[in-house]
Amino acid sequence: MKPHFRYSPQPVLEPVPGCEWASQMVLNPAIIHDPASDELHMLFRASGPWSHKRKEGKHDPYPIFLGYAVSRDLGQTWEADFTRPALAPALNEELDDIFITDIHGNRVRDYANGCIEDPRLFLVEDELYLSVACRLFPPGPYWLIDRAPFIDTRNDYVPDWVTETVGNDPFRAAARTNPTVTVLYKVDLGMLKARRYEEAFRYVCPLTEGHVSDNRDVFLFPERMRIDGKRQYVMLHRPMEPALFPQGSQVKKPSIYLAAAEKLEDFATDRATHRLLATSQFHWEDNRIGASWAPIKISDQEWLVSYHGKKDSHFGYTQSFMIVREQDNDFPVVTHRCPERLMYAQQAWEMPTDYPTPCLFTTGGIIVKDELIMSYGAADQKVGMAWVNVAELVAYVKQFDAG
């Protein structure tokens, strides 16, 4: 029997007029369950016109921030803190200023300088982490490129020094194209709950290489696995340029990859190894697929993976699920994959308004008792919640083979 998904009948969060950093969009939320209580904690993506940094003759920049919210009724309602962002980009412009101190006390390049997008919260061996898709410089109102006549403002706030060619510096190479680079933070949940945001996040490292490919939808399995004779961290990612990765010449479209590394800092280097996990197969995912949130363990060797597919700008983003199984001394493989889109925009409030592409995009999933609770962005502008019985969902996905 097809599982029954329940959805919030109205957005649980939406843009706040007059809130400078969250007046245009509030979307794509990550959630985590507090083991000490029944509270759920959320980090959501938000943006608004940031007039402080506006340059003459250009549109306002739209840096992207993370905000914080808490739910005390398992996601039915949320109390959001719109007094200030929980995590904000520094928005430095000069080459010598784009640095941050990492978790080890090192002064390193800050790949989260311009935008901090699409958060995912997940545990790795009982430590809480946050992965975010970041850009070095903020865009203008980037959605105008999808309108007619189109206006491209994506590079309005990229500084002139990026055009200088100096050696083989990967940071400068990334700055020239301003791609998405996924960055990892360690999170102190206690500090986040107390809204002591300055103490809640510690910069760990980039997880992807911006000078190689734009790369997002990146997060880790909660447990290390034995691969190539070593106990390694395992990461899902979705490079825009799959041809630069193993088997990429076969797939041609952005697809779900795995990466393995002994250290977190190794993922954004050639010390990581990569393997294609899944690529587009069905009509509703013809343009691309990517994983949606960190895998959830459902048996000793099996993991539930939520993923999204995009067909085109008219059909938009929809969601389904696959199950992957660990292998001895090798990467996990897909064993079951649902060919149907199980989650997609249906309610009036989920339909596009300011942004033309239909979108239901889950970025958080947790199990509480027998229920899978998911948070999602709708219409690229609002936040919704969904619930489904996890046993029914897994049983349904297991009816299908790997595809």
In short:
By secondary structure, this protein is mainly beta.
**Sheet/helix structural class:** mainly beta
DSSP helical segment count: 5
How many DSSP E strands?
A: 24
Strand content: 35-45%
Helix content: under 10%
Largest sheet: 5 strands, antiparallel
**Which residue ranges are poorly predicted, with pLDDT under 50 across at least 5 consecutive positions?**
none
Order of helices and strands: EEEEEEEEEHEHHEEEEHEEEEEEEEEEH
Give the radius of gyration: 20 Å
Shape: globular
Report how far the terminal alpha carbons are from each other: 20 Å
Q: Would you tell me the overall average pLDDT?
A: 95
Outline the secondary-structure elements.
Blueprint: E1 6-7, E2 25-33, E3 40-47, E4 64-71, E5 79-81, E6 99-101, E7 107-109, E8 115-124, E9 127-135, H1 170-177, E10 181-187, H2 189-193, H3 197-200, E11 201-206, E12 215-220, E13 225-227, E14 230-239, H4 248-251, E15 256-261, E16 273-278, E17 288-291, E18 296-297, E19 302-310, E20 317-327, E21 330-337, E22 360-368, E23 371-378, E24 382-389, H5 390-397
Antiparallel strand pairs: 1-24, 2-3, 3-4, 4-5, 6-7, 8-9, 9-10, 10-11, 12-14, 13-14, 14-15, 15-16, 17-19, 18-19, 19-20, 20-21, 22-23, 23-24
